[in-house]
Design goal:
318 residues, 2% strand
Length: 318
């Protein structure tokens, strides 16, 4: 305990945590802007989507409030008092972990729904994602309980195994989701440039989203294991849940607007993992009609556009 106070470095401990708090505040601002944009653009969207947006925003506001309380306690109430390191952790700092992982769980379960739709109801892959997601939630809950039982903030390394397992499960889930989406989306390619460009954009979005969260999780895991005496890992973790929430709202806000609701029924829709399967099926159908005729040429640009923008009953991937 005394060694911990002697080696106390404000810059790498509470300074790093404060930097993470500042970054997470910016991310919350972006999230709030996205939530406002969502309700302005899609006033008649499905209640399920609206409930998710409101729920995620409220969870992240509560999460940020817990982080702010912890930072105020350490940096104002106990500023300059190194003995705070050998005192019990502030309750809000521990409880924040659960709020953060709940956000990740909600977003990942929605990703699992996407995989389920794009894979034509592949039970094995979807079940794996759901199990990994729920396992991360369970392990993080155990970490929270153990955190409340710690006698000192300097003893965070004592629960390193549980924390590492939770972060590892989160990272593995992100990788599986990104890999599954890339694999199943690849099967939707038709050989037509217009359709394949949409599919390629969806694949790129899956890789970038899963890659960003995986990198943050991996970096947090490495720092927690190899630099447990500072709080740099804590600063990164403050940001992680808001990255998940922002990625979800970004997907919702890039849909086209149709009668106040979100739709991806147009060919130039931004990549959002929404409704691709029926588009490719319609294009193949148009192609087959041309093949039955006298000409074996590919459909014209106008034909493709009519085929893709016709009144097709799309299946949503949410």
């Amino acid at each position: 305990m005394e060694a911990a106070t002697r080696s106390f470095n404000k810059d790498s401990t509470f300074g790093a945590a404060f930097a993470g708090f500042a970054a997470s505040t910016i991310c919350l601002g972006v999230l709030s802007t996205q939530a406002y944009t969502y309700f302005r653009r899609y006033p008649l969207d499905k209640p399920f989507y609206k409930g998710l947006v409101v729920g995620l925003w409220l969870i992240e506001v509560a999460d940020q409030a817990l982080i702010a309380h912890a930072m105020y306690s350490y940096l104002v109430s106990y500023w300059g008092d190194a003995s705070i390191l050998i005192a019990r952790p502030i309750w809000s700092l521990i409880l924040q972990i659960t709020f953060g992982v709940v956000t990740g769980t909600i977003v990942k379960l929605n990703f699992a729904m996407r995989v389920w739709r794009f894979s034509n109801q592949n039970v094995a892959v979807t079940s794996l994602i759901v199990l990994l997601t729920l396992a991360e939630l369970a392990v993080a809950s155990v970490y929270t309980v153990k955190g409340f039982q710690l006698e000192s903030l300097a003893l965070l390394a004592d629960v390193k195994t549980i924390g590492t397992l939770s972060l590892g499960l989160g990272m593995a889930t992100d990788v599986v989701i990104a890999a599954a989406l890339c694999y199943f989306l690849r099967n939707l390619r038709t050989g037509h440039r217009q359709d394949d460009s949409v599919v390629n954009s969806l694949i790129l979005y899956a890789i970038s989203t899963g890659g960003l969260t995986s990198v943050i999780s991996l970096t947090t895991l490495i720092l927690y294991n190899f630099m447990p005496d500072n709080f740099i890992f804590m600063g990164l973790y403050f940001v992680l849940s808001k990255i998940y929430a922002n990625s979800f709202l970004a997907a919702l806000n890039t849909r086209r607007i149709s009668r106040g609701r979100g739709t991806d029924a147009e060919t130039n829709t931004m990549p959002t993992f929404l409704m691709v399967g029926k588009v490719t099926q319609r294009t193949v159908h148009v192609d087959s009609e041309h093949q039955q005729g006298s000409s074996h040429l590919s459909p014209t640009k106008g034909d493709s556009k009519r085929g893709l923008t016709s009144n097709t009953s799309y299946v949503e991937a949410w």
